[in-house]
Design a protein that fits this description.
Layout: E1 29-34, E2 38-45, E3 56-62, E4 65-70, H1 76-88, H2 91-113, E5 123-125, E6 132-136, H3 141-144, E7 145-147, E8 151-156, E9 159-164, H4 167-177, H5 187-230
Antiparallel strand pairs: 1-5, 2-3, 2-9, 3-4, 4-6, 7-8, 8-9
Helix pairs in contact: 1-2, 2-5
């Protein structure tokens, strides 16, 4: 194999490069944080089959091109959706469970990103490479990307990724590809805002679930009373 730092040939069993001393296994920690042009989390991948939990990718733009980072889909999504669906016993219960699961999984993805992003949204390690689905070199970006109003279509090396977000993020991606460094919020501030939004969403979901359960109980109770009167 080749050393990832100096690209010299080294033995497959080697732990360190004999030429430059670089560690060959595990994530590489940068000597100083690496500034990037753009990093946007949780683009929804729409050209893949999703059951209960949606598929998400992060987009990273730096000097050597665009990285599509495919984040794990956690099992808790399917389990939560199924449990709530069984509890409420209908399709809407399954949808509510999926929404709750999305909130839980979003927190897990947020924690995962801390392996490679520091609080200033700079790269601290290259551990993101473990999750890279596609890397499009800078020289191939114009031919490989099609930017739409709220999504991006990426085709490179026989692979295709369709990722959807919002108009603002599509514009930010275009700016980054053109070489501009797009300002990103401090992670702690961004995380606090996301947690606040998640809590508000959970409260709404709890009210919806409670309303449906109470409605079903009232419906069943009314049915029992009706049958009793008819008898």
């Amino acid at each position: 194999m080749k050393c990832r730092e100096c690209e010299k040939e080294v033995k497959d069993s080697a732990v360190f490069c004999s030429d430059c001393g670089c560690k060959l296994s595990g994530p590489k920690e940068y000597n100083s944080p690496v500034n990037i042009n753009y990093y946007a989390s949780d683009w929804r991948q729409t050209n893949t089959l999703s059951v209960a939990t949606l598929a998400y990718v992060d987009l990273l733009v730096k000097e050597d091109g665009l990285y599509i980072i495919q984040l794990p889909r956690y099992r808790s999504g399917v389990i939560l959706a199924s449990l709530v669906g069984l509890l409420i016993a209908n399709f809407f219960g399954f949808l509510i469970g999926s929404t709750i699961a999305h909130s839980v999984n979003k927190g897990k993805r947020r924690e995962l990103r801390k392996k490679w992003l520091n609080k200033n949204n700079q790269l601290a390690t290259d551990s993101f490479k473990e999750y890279v689905l596609l890397h499009i070199p800078q020289s191939n970006l114009d031919a490989s990307l099609k930017l739409r109003r709220r999504k991006v279509v990426i085709e490179y090396g026989g692979n295709k990724v369709v990722a959807k977000k919002n108009k603002k993020e599509v514009n930010n991606l275009q700016r980054a590809i053109n070489g501009e460094k797009v300002p990103m919020p401090i992670r702690d501030e961004q995380q606090a805002q996301e947690i606040q939004e998640d809590e508000a969403t959970k409260k709404k979901q709890a009210i919806i679930v409670l309303s449906i359960v109470v409605g079903l109980f009232a419906f069943l109770l009314g049915g029992i009373l009706l049958v009793t009167l008819l008898i």
